[in-house]
Amino acid sequence: MTGVSGLWYISHGELLLRMLIAAVLGGLIGLEREWSNHAAGFRTHILVCLGSATIMLLSIYGFSEFVNEPNVRIDPARLAAQVISGIGFLGAGAILRNGSVISGLTTAASVWVVAAIGLCVGAGFLFAAFYATLMVLISLLLLNKWEKHLLRHRRSHDVSVKALDYPGVLGTIASKFGEQGIQIVNVKMIPEPEAGEGSNAKPTILLSFNLKVTDQGKLMMAVDQINSLDVVLWTEAGKSVVGSGASIERTH
């Protein structure tokens, strides 16, 4: 490193320390994602943060031998910029869509933030890295609980009902939800394939309800009343999701 300014030099001990810090900070955020059973978890966040820090270290110190070359221009931010744009592809892999429900956005965002934390550690901007890690953990742990409490009355539930395809069956079933004060946000009607000629099987229809529920007990009561109807074959209640505008869709 003869003739190289101390600005472009880092000792092996400092290099190892920054990489370890990046692994620890990324692991803290990944541990929360792993605990919550998300796609990108503990190891993924460690690798992203460590990789970002290593690239930042490479960008700043990896080309120090060329600093004094008259025809070489050193730009430490060039590789860092590529990390920020390239990490989006990894985050996109954590986003899943199931019908109108999109999940994984928070995990994708956490991967992106972890990359930024790694870049901060690699550049020696340690206070920003620690502060960012603390704020991310607060957002994922504390604000997540506060958000669930705040939006508890805006949650909706999916309920599927298979029934005989008789005239007025939708109104009969929907009235049971109405009696319990449950708002129907969305309904999908999916006719079942008709049986072949000569069969005594009756035509059936699958009704998929998206409901705005404020009281879980009333939902269970409505499901029990629906199951007691002669035209209903079975009922299945799914997990809660965030509701949207009301509509009725018939799928052929």
Automatic annotation (TrEMBL):
Coiled coil: none annotated. Its main location: membrane. Keywords: Cell membrane, Membrane, Transmembrane, Transmembrane helix. Belongs to the MgtC/SapB family. The keyword Metal-binding does not apply. One of its GO terms (cellular component) is plasma membrane. This is Magnesium transporter MgtC. The keyword Transferase does not apply. InterPro entries: ACT-like_dom_sf, ACT_dom, MgtC/SapB/SrpB/YhiD_fam, MgtC_SapB_SrpB_YhiD_N. Residues 158-240 form the ACT domain.
